[in-house]
Amino acid sequence: MKAAKVPLNVDFVSLWGSTLHHIEDLPYDPVEYMPHVYGNFRKRGDGVKVRGLLPTPEKGSLPFIDLSKASDVEKAHLAFMPSIEKDFGFDKTEIEANSKRDKRGCYEFIGGEDAGLKRLQEYI
């Protein structure tokens, strides 16, 4: 991946996610042992309960940053939008080659929150 060549001054934090069970709920350490066969996974995980969902936030309950009190660094981070060319090092030819619709796809991908929410409603 070309983007991996770009030096970034960031701290990497590994998070457990996108799985049925939380890592701390498993009866084994998946770093030391991870069942390779579903049957073994099922047997080892038999009885492990799925954690409950977090409550859905009430509308308006999530805090928003007060821009009048934000530092210059916070304002810069809120305004930052990465550039495929400048920040990830792709040239115009590479961008154009990858901007065409993939004929293998079952629908055209359209970016943006509004399009994403519309697609989610169609899917559900």
Key structural traits:
mainly alpha; single chain; extended; 4 helices; 124 residues
Overview of the structural elements:
This protein is an all-alpha fold. Helix content is 26%, strand content 0%. The chain is extended. It starts with 37 loop residues before the first helix and ends with a helix.
How does the SSE layout of this entry go?
Blueprint: H1 38-44, H2 72-79, H3 92-97, H4 113-123
Strand residue percentage: under 5%
How many beta-strand segments?
0
Q: Biggest β-sheet, characterized?
A: none
Which structural class best describes the helix and strand composition? mainly alpha
Total helical segments: 4
In percent, how helical is the residue content?
25-40%
First-to-last CA distance:
33 Å
Write down the Rg. Answer: 22 Å
N to C succession of SSEs: HHHH
Mean pLDDT: 84
Spans of at least 5 consecutive residues with low confidence? none
Shape: extended
Summarize the structure.
This protein is mainly alpha-helical and 124 residues long.
